[in-house]
Amino acid sequence: MASAADYDRMKKVKEFDESKMGVKGLSDSGITSIPRFFIHPPQTLSQLKSSSSSSSSIQIPVIDLSDHRSKVVDQIRVACKTWGFFQVINHGVTMSVLEQTINAIKAFHDQPPQEKAKLYVGDEKRGVRFAVNNDLYRSEAATWHDHLQVWMAPEPPEVEQIPEICRREVVAWDLHGKNVAESVMELLSEGLGLEPGKFKELTFSEHRLLVGICYPHCPQPDLTMGIASHTDSVVLTVLLQNHVPGLQVKHGDEWVDVKPVPGGLIINAGDFLQIVSNGEYQSIQHRVLANPYKEPRISIVMFFNLIKWKESDSYGPLPELLSPEKPAIYRNFTKQEYLDDIYSKGLNSKSFIQKITI
Question: N or C, where is the chain less crowded by C-beta within 10 Å?
């Protein structure tokens, strides 16, 4: 191996990026050691070793959406305040649709690298693209996953731009995911003492990004991450995953393994929801471990955010939630401030929230 002085990280990253083979291409090639730019610093790796083995009995809340509404509102409010994550069952989407969606995204990633490479172009802020890490050039170390990214709203792509192998399922999942998100947003809104339709009125589900992620087998899972620890910058995230584990949520000082419930969907609050709720709901750090199994981990993530900002192009805690007893704990911020924070750095945890905390 070249010495630290001789190693040109950016050159190696650029060579890998321009090969367009993706992480799965690397994994499928039969490598037994990972490229150096995927290796994470010791302080990150040491935290992997002390992860959630001691927390095996602790689980994120599982909430049955078919239960009595007032009970569900209370369960979701508590889960979002104390965990920031929860799983929902009886959400109205059939098991067959969930399986078809997972299988379609897996089929996309199973294609030869040269087929996926046709989409290895474009803008991370719109359209359809295949990529390794959005923050490949911005992060300290790369992470062991590939993804298909489809911006579904407010400017949907031409349907022909979505790969044919998963087109029908991606279009359908946009509708199913939105329905689940809007149902949950009604319950979250009620949990704050607001009208059920408040979040819909605020366009909190009208900006939608669908990301189909593949975490292929990693030959050295103790040296890298599937996705680094971060919080989501958006209002709400809906996650569908296959049975291969890897997702962990920070709870107190511990990392807790998220065990998929058959037919369940995972919901988590983003930074934007923490801000507009004035801290009532919490956006929590989560990460995905590199996959040691031969079978890939597949997840389909939908990120929901607003399209209608205030006239001044600013936002902050909702005025209805503020009072002399409960003053704002975050200052107002501009749309440009928010977007600059997202696209100027690698994944991280709540840097924006820290920036605007009063």
Answer: N
